[in-house]
Amino acid sequence: MLKGKKIVLGITGSIAAYKACLVIRELVKRGAEVQVVITPAGKEFITPITLSTLTQKPVVSEFFSQRDGTWNSHVALGLWADAMLIAPCTASTLGKMANGVADNMLVTTYLSMKAPVFIAPAMDLDMYAHPSTARNIQRLKEYGNLFIEPASGFLASGLEGKGRMQEPEVIVDELDNFFEPKDLEGKDILITAGPTYEKIDPVRFIGNYSSGKMGFALAEECARRGAHVRLVSGPVSIKANHSNIERIDVESAQQMYDACLERFDKVDAAILCAAVADYRPEHSATEKIKRTADDMCLRLLPNKDIAAELGKRKTAGQTLVGFALETDHEKMHAIEKLKKKNLDFIVLNSLQNKGTCFMSDENQITILSAQGSTEYERKSKADGARDIVEHLVKTMYDKH
Ligand code: CTP
Q1: Taking CA atoms, which of 41, 102, 207, 387 is between 20 and 30 Å from 379?
Q2: 373 three-class SS
């Protein structure tokens, strides 16, 4: 949650300084306010004009402003910030920080900082491997600074090593995670996502357009808030990133049903986001079905309803959330499903909202429960996931 957060971004003299622009853009996109403090060497790599345009704030570099001689207060910056991020941080700045060598505005600000400090090192791989760098990093870790591991690259010797600054998005994700409320710490959450494939023969199936994006966004959001997530996913082409997510891949509705039932007893909540096929072919051929001149008839059998089954097994302490995708009489159908499946709340997704739902990155949802309904604005699936998890947390805490 970076919205409204005040970040002091320290930039030092590394070739990776150009990437600081991408870091700023990502921070600003997520709602943070950014104040740049740059070292004299940093200015050799990137101009303050570029940085101040991106942050909408003058860049701080010298102790005194050259224009009017006003004093730039490192103490005030230390009190203003919710976090300081130094990206890129060179070996030289690491050394100065570890030893209190306050000969520039950046290190002075660092020493006055009251907020947590994140450091994203960037240097030549041999410099990073040097014991002196390792010692400085060790010392800075002991002082409570948070390190963002550099990425891998190749040494001059051809061997693999580290030192390259981590990607801007990964850096900003780490800050984002840090500020996320950990209100699901210790909770276990089951999430279904994606479509199911119902086999006709070895090369054909009945499926649907679900991309799994909503379910995966929910899994990331629950994980960020501290939950252990069991993500049961149908065939999708996306990845789950957070280490708190345990992914269980399935193909058919029956496999998804089995995977969910096996785990439901152990979880505090389940979010059923998958677009489960309602029917499967009665027979799935072991060999590829050949074309003939005749009509072909495929007899379908109903699949089990995972949500309804979990609704039956739900204990008083467990929370169950479903999704509804409707084209007509949306609220009425959604409320029917809420009751029939014994859900705590249901997230309604209307197909009448063009450009949302399947394959899209955006969603417009309504949350319905016995307590009433809440309509949300159209937003990204990641932001939508936050609204849903917010509601989930409230429902879970109301039960206890
Ligand atoms: N669901 C499920 N297992 C199924 C079918 C649906 O767990 N076999 C879940 C979905 O993940 C969703 C909710 O039930 O959370 C509603 O899904 P939907 O397909 O809209 O409901 P159906 O009961 O299949 O109703 P219909 O297709 O007739 O609208």
Answers
A1: 207
A2: strand
Ligand 1 atom showing the smallest separation from residue 321 Cα: 15
Encoded tokens for 114: 């009251």
Q: How far is CA 17 from CA 11, 34, 137, 154, in A?
A: 7, 16, 20, 20
- What tens digit of pLDDT does each residue of 65-106 get? 766 666 778 788 999 999 999 999 999 999 999 999 999 999
- pLDDT digit string (tens) for 95-134? 999 999 999 999 999 999 999 999 999 998 889 999 999 9
How far are the Cα atoms of 21, 41, 345, 381, 397 from residue 234, in angstroms, in the given order?
38, 51, 23, 18, 30
Whether residues 323 and 193 fall in one domain? yes
Shared-domain flag, residues 392 and 259: yes
Q: What single DSSP character describes residue 39?
A: -
Active site residues: 208
- Ligand 1 pocket test, candidate residues 214, 255, 258, 305, most atoms within 8 A of CB: 305
Q: What is the mean pLDDT of the chain?
A: 93
Q: Residues lining ligand 1, judged by CB closer than 6 Å?
A: 192, 253, 272, 274, 276, 278, 303, 305-307, 322-325, 337
Q: What does the pLDDT look like over 163-188, one tens digit per residue? A: 899 999 999 999 998 998 899 999 99
Ligand 1 centroid to Cα of residue 203, in Å, is 26
For residue 325, the ligand 1 atom closest to its alpha carbon is 20
- Residue 334: give its domain's CATH number: 3.40.50.10300
pLDDT at 374 over 80: yes
Question: Structural domain of residue 62, as residue ranges?
Answer: 6-179
